[in-house]
Amino acid sequence: MTSPTAEDTLQVRFWGVRGSHPASGPDMRVFGGHTACVEVRCGERLFIVDAGTGITALGLSLGDQAPAEINILLSHLHHDHVTGLPFFKPALKSTRTVRLHCGNLGGESAKAALDRLFSPPLFPVRLDQLPARFEHVGFHAGETLHFADGFTVPTCPLQHPSGATAFRFEHRGRVVCYVSDVEHDEAWPPENLRRFVQGADLVIYDAMFSEDEFCRCRGWGHSTWQAGVALCRSAGAKALAAFHLHPHADDACLEALDRTLREALPGSFVAREGQTVALAPVLAPA
């Protein structure tokens, strides 16, 4: 039997795992301090989920190997998920098209909102003043995204202030779901989200708060690792990646959480900046 090729593999790389704002300091080195950005490769097809400060390092890594057309799927437009856009190196190349997909604005694209954010007096230039061509795609969270080569990405609405969108990536029998930002409630999990992550190999989940913190922060739009584990168990998902980590959680705190999470749901972990997860295809018996 031949070894799986890159074309067969569903691969995830974490470029930013923090929520709210970047974190720095000598006790933040193991898990990293950049805000939300995840690279997903379904074979050779690249998707970027969210454009927090982590997208700056991703852009440098892509360099001249960045595809001519780059699809960035935005869960929503809060600052920690978009602030890296003007610093994404491929956006400085006139030969690149950066396509931004946004599903939490009732079908409207993110163009008007991003034009307000990235313009004087808040920012010196607009995105459309950068050399790359920016295209804006609006959709309703819950719709399936369709791409030119027939590849599809299902989506799901999430409970978050102003809404947010989850994404499901399927390739060669493997499944990764990105579920951030979301707030759980008493009737958890909702049936639509349970179906959405059904059978996933990995669920990247908003684990911003401890249970004690969550009780004081209801309505802020975030969740706990315990709710993430409950979601995975109810849906038969295999593993959880704790994500959107609190910016004040230091390495010692997160290493302890990592041990606890691995015991609660084997195969699970706290996501680390630079970490790669590669899922080989599910092969038919020889």
UniProtKB/TrEMBL annotation:
Q: Where is the Metallo-beta-lactamase domain?
A: 34-218
- Tell me where on the tree of life, at the top rank, the source sits: Bacteria
State the Gene3D superfamilies in the record: Ribonuclease Z/Hydroxyacylglutathione hydrolase-like
Show the Pfam families listed in the entry.
Answer: Lactamase_B_2
Q: Which InterPro entries match?
A: Metallo-B-lactamas, RibonucZ/Hydroxyglut_hydro
**Signal peptide location:** none
Protein's recorded name: MBL fold metallo-hydrolase
